[in-house]
Amino acid sequence: MKLALIFATALPLAAQCTFSLNPSSLAAPASPDTIGTFQVVASASNCARTAVSTAPDWLTISFGTTGTGNGTIGYRVDTNRTPGVRTGAIVVGSARFTVTQAAPCTIALNPREADVPAAGATGTIAVTAGCAWTAVPSQTWITVTAGNTGNLNGSISYRVAANTSQQSRAGAINV
After folding, report:
1. Are 150 and 131 within 8 A, CB to CB?
2. Which of 76, 155, 162 is CA-nearest to residue 119?
3. CA dist., res. 62 & res. 70, Å (int)
4. Who is most buried in 47, 61, 68, 74, counting CB within 10 A?
5. What's the DSSP call for residue 155?
6. Considering the entire predicted model, what is its pTM?
7. Cβ atoms of 96 and 21 closer than 8 Å
8. What per-residue confidence (pLDDT) applies to 84?
9. Residue 60 has what DSSP assignment?
């Protein structure tokens, strides 16, 4: 009786596969929408990979959801319309591509409006902001005299020229 030995090369099991991601994180602005990609490097060419978003309502996978071995995953981060910073991830095996998205900028003005006499006037607006801002007059007869840009809280000084016409007028300082 002869004994035959057969040697076979075992393929890695899915549980033995590991993945690394490059890059492994993203700091996304609050807006506009962010579109990008990251690379997946598998421990073996026959490792099956599946990508899943932990925040599918705002962090979506646009391509590369499944595949074998190394690959590229495309994603989209929607504009953040929530009041705070948010974090989500795209998970491939035990590897995570983490997205931290900034909160939208909030700006409050005090006062929000002013009645100016026909003779013109000057005034000040207090700005409470969570980001950088710029003050831009909507009409040539409104001038920002100080504080036309700022970062976080500040103030805007303005001058409204005299109205020499018989018609009332309206304008704004857009922040």
Report:
1. no
2. 162
3. 17
4. 47
5. E
6. 0.63
7. yes
8. 87
9. E
> What distance in Å separates the CA atoms of residue 158 and residue 126, rounded to the nearest whole number?
11
Q: Tens of pLDDT along 20-59? A: 999 999 999 999 999 999 999 999 999 999 999 999 999 9
- Cβ neighbours for 167, distance < 8 A, ≥ 6 positions apart: none
Give the span between the Cα atoms of 65 and 39, in whole angstroms. 12
Residue 91 backbone dihedrals phi, psi, to 5 degrees: -105, 130
Q: What percent of the chain has pLDDT over 70?
A: 91
- pLDDT category of residue 105 using cuts at 50, 70 and 90: confident
* The two three-digit tokens of residue 105, written as one number: 């900028």
For 110, phi then psi, to 5°, come to: -145, 115
What is the torsional sign of CA 120, 107, 78, 83? negative
Question: Within its chain, how far is the Cα of 117 from the centroid?
Answer: 43
Res. 2 pLDDT band, cuts 50 70 90? low
Task: Give the C-alpha distances (Å, rounded to integers) separating 111 from 39, 56, 101, 119, 136.
Answer: 50, 40, 31, 20, 16
Please tell me what DSSP assigns to residue 58: T
